Structure formats: C-alpha cells, structure tokens
Amino acid sequence: MVEAFAVASGKGGTGKTTSTMALGMALAERYDVTVVDADTGMANLLFHAGLSDADTTLHDVLVEGGAPVSAATYDRFGMSVVPCGTSLAAFEAADPDRLRDVVAELAGDTDVLLLDSPATLNSKSAVLPIVLADRVVVVLNPTVPAISDGLKVQEYALSYGSGIAGTVFNRVRGDVGDVRSKAERYFEGPTLATVPESDSVQAARSAGVPLLAHAPESPAAEAFRTAAGRLSPNDGDSGDVAERFRTAVIPDPP
Ligand SMILES: Nc1ncnc2c1ncn2[C@@H]1O[C@H](COP(=O)(O)OP(=O)(O)OP(=O)(O)O)[C@@H](O)[C@H]1O
Ligand SMILES: [Mg+2]
C-alpha cells in the first residue's frame, strides 16, 4: 500500500517542515513512513531531522548520472528521511523533472510518503508535490494571508485532481474558534488539529530533533498525533502510484 501526501501552505514559514516531521513520526507508529524534502530550492528539513551533515542528499540524486536515491535515504526517528541540500548551485544543477522518478521509486517501498512542499506555486518544482500527491495537508496559521494562500493551494490541488486531507492550524495563540469555523466553510476536509504556539517547537528545531522526539508530551506534539490519527492513509496500489508519478506531465505554474 502507499498514499502520497503533500504538506503545503502557499505561505512561507507556516510550519510545513515541522508538521511533516511530526506527522511522519506519529504515523510511523503504525506505518512504514518516508519523508522527502521536496522543497529543493529552500530546503530545511535536514535541520529538523539532525541531518545537516548528510553527505548525500536529494540534490545529488537529481543531477544526470547522479547518486541512487538509496544513498540519500537515512533511517531517522523510525522513518526513512530523504533530505535535500541547501546549496544554490546544487539547486540550479538539479533537474526537477527527476523528482518524479525519485518519488516513484520511493513509493514502491513505503506505506506513507510525506512530501514537504515549497512555499509558493511559482515554478515547476514548487507545484510538483501538490499536483502529484493523492492528498494535500494544508498547514495554516490563523492569519488572513496564511488562509488566503492556503486556499490558493487548495484550488490548485483540486484542479489537478489531488484531494485535500484537511488543514492543520499551527502557531495558534488563544482561542481561534471563530477563524477556524470560518475557514472550515472554505476548506475541503476536516481541521485535523489546532497546534499551539509553543517554545517546545522552537527548542526542537534548535536541537535539530523533531518535536515528537524532543518533547513528546508537549501539547503541540499531542496535537500533531491527533492530526495524524485523522489522516487514515489509503492503501493505494504502490505500482499505480509509482506509475502516476513517473508519467506525470507537470503543468506550468499558474
Ligand atoms: N507551533 C509552533 N510554535 C512555535 N514555533 C513554531 C511552531 N511551528 C513552527 N514554528 C517555528 O516556525 C519556524 C518555521 O517553521 P517551519 O520551518 O516548520 O515552517 P515552514 O513552513 O516549513 O517554512 P518554509 O516555508 O521556510 O519552508 C521554525 O523556526 C519553527 O520552529
Ligand atoms: Mg520548510
């Protein structure tokens, strides 16, 4: 079985990478999980996963005649983690079209694929995870710009046949019931969780460790476990998912 999720938001800094690692760790209690830093231009998952010294990353796989994806796959925190490097030159040398083959290969060997997606929708590599995922987890902050950008992601995903798994409200301070119930009218899928603004999240990031490893009992970690519990990954046929990624024609961005 496999289901591919894109973790996306449109807006930068909403908590996509934090959410990818937290949802991945929570799902890894029941499933074989692979997380991929599909934000190849502004990669930062490596810093959240203690992989800032990784020798081989996705950038090395995405060049012609590059490394096999197995060389860029690391066992961390009960998951398979595929980090991406941060060099601009390596990003420029990487061919985003190759990411389809990489994800197709990974899909054959895992139950849940989580694609940490770029902010914005302004390039082929940026839209790829949203277009190819089975479902998109939309990470929002309770602010008008974040919700507005999240809606653009939803519109784009739906127009290419990707589903919406639901929304995660992150960095929530106080009661946002009103904002949340308004947003629920516009977003498909449930609110998966409301994650509080939390010093534990910052501390985990500074330590280079995912939140669920650094502060597993924190309210924020608990909220992410709740979100993961609501995802119920589908047991899609691995071959079908791999074929979809391999043969997809990535549209020009909007
Ligand atoms: N619930 C939270 N409480 C406090 N800080 C948070 C929370 N969620 C995320 N942060 C912090 O916000 C910053 C951005 O988070 P993260 O890197 O996960 O966002 P992102 O959406 O992946 O960003 P980018 O668009 O740059 O890839 C990090 O420093 C992270 O520690
Ligand atoms: Mg990120």
From TrEMBL:
One of its GO terms (cellular component) is cytoplasmic side of plasma membrane. Residues 227-254 are annotated as: Disordered. InterPro entries: CobQ/CobB/MinD/ParA_Nub-bd_dom, P-loop_NTPase, ParA/MinD_ATPase. GO terms for molecular function: ATP binding; ATP hydrolysis activity. Residues 6-210 form the CobQ/CobB/MinD/ParA nucleotide binding domain. One of its GO terms (biological process) is negative regulation of cell division. This is ParA domain protein. It comes from Natronomonas moolapensis (strain DSM 18674 / CECT 7526 / JCM 14361 / 8.8.11). The gene is parA1.
